[in-house]
Amino acid sequence: MARVIVDDLTKEYNSPGGSILAVDELNLEIDDGEFVVFVGPSGCGKSTTLRCIAGLETVTDGTLHFGDEDVTDQKPKERNIAMVFQNYALYPHMTSRENMAFGLKMSTDLSKDVIDERVEDTAEMMGIKELLADKPKALSGGQQQRVALGRAIVRDPEVFLMDEPLSNLDAKLRAQMRTELQQLQSELDVTTVYVTHDQTEAMTMGDRIVVLNDGKLQQVGTPLECYHRPANRFVAGFLGSPPMNFLEVDVDLESGTLSNSAFSLPIPESAVDDVSGSKLTLGIRPEHVSLVDAVETHAEPDHLIETEVTVTEPMGDITNVYLDVGGESLTVTSDDRLGVRGGDTVHIHVPAAKIHLFDAESGEAIKHSDEPIDSTRIAEASGHAETA
Amino acid sequence: MASTTRQFRRRVADLQLGNYLPFYSRLSEEQRFAYKLLAPGLAMMCIIHFLPIIWGTLISFMGVDSTYARQWHNAPFVGLENYLYVLDPRTVIGGRFWFSIRQTVIFAVGSLVVTYVLGLTAALVLNQKFKGRFVARTLLLLPWVAPVVVTLLIWRMMFQQQSGIINNILLSIGIIDEPIYWLIGDNTIWTLVLTHSWTQFPLVMIMLYAGLQGIPQQLYEAASIDGASRWQKFRYVTFPQLKPVSAVVVLLVMLWTMINFTAPYVLLGAQPPRAGQVGILYIYEFAFSNFQFGRGAAMSVILFIIAMTMAMVYYKYLFDDDFTEDSQ
Fold first, then answer.
1. B260: domain CATH number?
2. Closest Cα partner for A34 from A220, A225, A176, A227?
3. What is the pLDDT of residues A42-99, one digit of tens each?
4. Which residues does the UniProt record annotate as the domain ABC transporter (chain A) (predicted)?
5. A17 to chain B nearest CA, in Å?
6. Which of A5, A53, A120, B285 stands the most exposed, by the fewest C-beta atoms within 10 Å?
């Protein structure tokens, strides 16, 4: 078990067209036993960071510590880590048992009996005991995945590294493995770094998520923090499906409004002091916008916008409604069975409390929605609502 | 031109192949096309390989000697007599034939080992990233690309006992005190092995190199994390992953060496020293110097059967497994 401390980690690749900066001065502390998910689009540097932690890539600059030990220049085998690869990277010519035993055979001087016992215990835990004699080719994707996980677990490493381990599984199995992996991690209590481009995995699995873009750290926080208090427009847009709506607005401090060609909304009270400049990006999550029937009696009449429906997407449990707001597209997610269709004119409610504001140029967040982001706050909020 | 093609097509269509070959009409258009493409190759195979095999087998049961050299079809049928004669170790010819088979096996196994080790080493070196590896690859292919007779003649010159450069070098650096007789006496079989391996190893190298390129990098990364050293990565990842291509290489080199005529003939001549008398050379000498075509054919058939048996046994026990188990 170990804390992982990443200090000013920089990784540059030399390519014929000049050097490519894959990771740019990344700083991060991962607690002992923590499950941290690196998430970001392709090429954001998440896998490279993981590979640096694994020792598969040399670090251009900065240091890496496991606990108090500087591992920056150590070889992978000296780091006591285990890794699960996207394509599993099982040795095709070895049986599951041999695959799982290989690490112990190479890195320890345990006797064959002890290794066998540990392999069997792990296989039992992973539910793959009957597959031990099979070679990878005879196994399904899900089974290979389990063997690959078993191979990592049996080593009893200080740090687990997982590089998109679920992305080759079908949707159903992926959902199942997601839950299993979380359980497994909390049982084993091993520091885990998990790389994914799938924001559902990021949101559901990690104790904390690390959002990366272009080799730069965007935000570190619990999933709900990142979701409801995004540090910048990138994080806000990356997490959530459908993604957050962004509308470019002009600020009029005199009249206290945010407006564009299609609407004019009052500047939320909580943000009045922080707003400056003339242009901002307004962000609002699709689930926070609602379609309004009774326009006249609405509680926040100045937060209503008249729009036209372009497309509706019934998903079964929810419906995505795509609207046209002054030439920009806006998505509303609703769990009502809506009677609206493309071409209809509707009113939508953009609640002041749920609005995010971002600097139009830097993308830095200026105001967040008031959604609670941890369980105590959620309890407080609901208690508050009751007393109110 | 187009009309000629059309006429040709019509003529082929007029043949109504389907009427003569019931199975042909059952084939899909695609399969028929495949057979048409295969036909010229198959025809060549028939002329170059199958017909001589049949003819040779036929002759091996007949008393074809100098008397019948020009009219072999009139030679008497002698049943298994030729075989019994050449296989009888008590006769001079039988004894020499058995000895030549033994030398053939040494030649084949020796060449295989040397070729494989050389080829694998070269492939592993080429698989490293270093400047000039593409030049190195071309240079390493030269022994195989150069006309084999030229290569062999050069080796023959280099192996000369007095004037050859090899003895000169070995003498001057003090490895040997007296010139070695490379081309006469007991050493000839090893000279043969070395020379033949030199001409063959680039092919093995290229095949193994292709095999190496096909091994997923992730396996090495997984092995690194599992704590394997360089040698252990070779032992537990590279070598097993090369098994399918090695299986092909081993089979081909074995068979090609067993029936190789050029190397022994150019290096040692038609009447080689005893130790250099591999099967194919002995058969040649026996059949064409003594005009004993029937018995020579019997020897050929025996060599053919030995080679085929080895190939089949090998295929059954090694090949099969490895080909169902492709690398991921």
1. 1.10.3720.10
2. A220
3. 889 999 999 999 999 999 999 999 989 999 999 998 898 999 999 999 999 999 999 9
4. 4-239
5. 19
6. A120
Burial classification of residue B131, based on how many CB atoms lie within 10 Å of its CB (0-12 exposed, 13-18 middle, 19 or more buried)? exposed
Instruction: Out of B223, B232, B328, name the one closest to residue A92 (CB).
Output: B328
Say whether pLDDT at B66 is over 60. yes
- Measured between beta carbons, the chain B residues lying within 8 angstroms of A82 are 225
B16 assigned to some structural domain: no
Q: How many Cβ atoms are within 10 Å of B226's Cβ, its own excluded?
A: 27
Helix (H) or strand (E) holding A100: helix A96-107
Same domain? B115 vs B253: yes
Please indicate if any CB of chain B lies within 8 Å of the CB of A89: yes
Q: CB B218 to CB A89 under 8 A?
A: yes
Q: Which of A56, A103, A135 sits opposite B226 (nearest CB)?
A: A103
Q: Judge if B88 and B139 occupy the same domain.
A: yes
Chain B residues touching residue A163 (CB < 8 angstroms): none
Please indicate, yes or no, whether residues B119 and B265 belong to a single structural domain of this protein. yes
Q: Which two tokens stand for residue B57?
A: 């087998």
Does the residue B178 lie in any domain? yes
Contact A92 B228 (CB under 8 A): no
Nearest residue of B to residue A101, measured between CA atoms: B226
Copy the structure tokens of residue B256. Answer: 């090609």
Nearest to A229 by CA among A349, A366, A331, A333: A366
| Residue of B71, B107, B254, B259 lying closest to B194 (CA atoms) | B107
Flag whether residue B221 sits within 8 Å of chain A, measured between CB atoms. yes
The Cα diameter of chain B in Å comes to: 78
* Integer Cα distance of B185 and A17 in angstroms: 62
Q: Identify whether residues B101 and B233 lie together within a single domain.
A: yes
> Are A375 and A383 a contacting pair, CB within 8 Å?
no
| Residue A94 CB contacts under 8 Å (≥ 6 apart), including other chains | A102, A135, A136, B240
Convert the pLDDT of each residue in A242-251 to its tens digit. Answer: 899 999 999 8
- The answer on B124 and B30 residing in a single domain is no
Identify which of A83, A85, A114 has the alpha carbon closest to the alpha carbon of residue A101.
Answer: A114
Residue A242: cis peptide before it, omega within 30 degrees of 0: yes
Q: Has residue B83 been placed in a domain?
A: yes
For residue range A178-236, list pLDDT tens digits in order: 998 888 888 889 999 999 998 888 998 989 999 999 999 999 999 999 999 999 999 99
Shared-domain flag, residues B209 and B258: yes
C-alpha pair distances (Å), A312 with each of A156, A330, A337, A339, A345? 50, 12, 11, 10, 13
B223 to chain A, minimum CA–CA distance in Å?
8
- Whether B8 is covered by a domain: the verdict is no
Domain containing residue B32 = 23-52
Inform me whether the C-beta atom of residue A106 falls under 8 Å from chain B C-beta atoms.
yes
Instruction: Report how many domains make up chain B.
Output: 2
- How confident is the model at residue B218, as a pLDDT? 92
Mean pLDDT of A102-106: 93
Q: Which sign, positive or negative, has the C-alpha torsion A126, A132, A134, A135?
A: positive
Q: Answer yes or no: do A85 and B222 touch at CB < 8 A.
A: yes
Asked whether residue B138 falls in the same domain as residue B173, the answer is yes
B140 and B38 co-located in one domain: no
B57 in contact with chain A, both atoms CB, cutoff 8 A: no
Strand arrangement, sheet containing A245-252: A264-266, A257-259, A245-252, A279-284, A356-359, A365-367
Task: Choose among B224, B236, B241: nearest Cβ to A77.
Answer: B224
Q: Which domains does chain A have, with CATH numbers?
A: 4-232 (3.40.50.300), 234-387 (2.40.50.140)
Contact A54/B225, CB-based, under 8 Å? yes
pLDDT of residue A193: 94
